[in-house]
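I hope you will forgive my troubling you with a question about protein structure. The record follows directly beneath this note:
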Amino acid sequence: MLSPLEYAEIAQGEYQEKIFKIYIAYEKGLREAGALDFDDLLIKAVELLSLNENTINKWQKTLTHILVDEWQDTNKIQYKLTKLLAGSGDNLTAVGDASQSIYSWRGADYKNINYLINDFPKIKIVNLEQNYRSTQNILDAANSIIKKNSSHPILKLWTNKKAGPKIKIYRAINESDEAQFLVNEIDNLITKGVELHDMAILYRTNAQSRVIEEVLLHSAVPYVLVGGVRFYNRSEVKDVLSFFKTCC
């Protein structure tokens, strides 16, 4: 929520001075193009609702009930926008878990859960602690780590499922070692009679798929990538490979 001039007042050092110059040029480019970026959509909306009483009254009457999901990943401007739309009414429902906040790098603040409780004292808190996905062993492991936090409310997750197998941890040297470990585990499961279609590899980010796919290909392990495109089938990768083929 800082304008270029507001940022200039707090900018220190050569790096932030460069950021200020880039910010000025970027804002100028947007104005010349008659464009708004995603942050502008939020900021302009808050400015409009804050400065125009007729507009805020209209939308508070129109939006009779407001539901915000993943509340722990809201940032300062999103919180202010929600407060403006909700007004003084009791029509706001927010769903979130501070322990699942993963977007602090782009301004999200899990403390918005605490601010919500302070700004809406009549709010009713309903803890959804039953888990339908995981076994109790997985939940116990997660709870043992999460319960050490003292900065936000902690949910104690439980399930009706059985305890399940114990969690195994393998500390890989690097991403290639991690991928090779996966292939070795697949081989062990095949030896025990487990079919490939009963196995799944879950990875944290799409960027990890390349190394895993390479090791699977080199080990002649057939696989299907769910919810994405195989690394070597991605358009940008195919373009680069075609370029190499042409040049070489």
Q: What stands out?
A: The two ends are 50 Å apart (CA to CA). The longest helix spans residues 13-33.
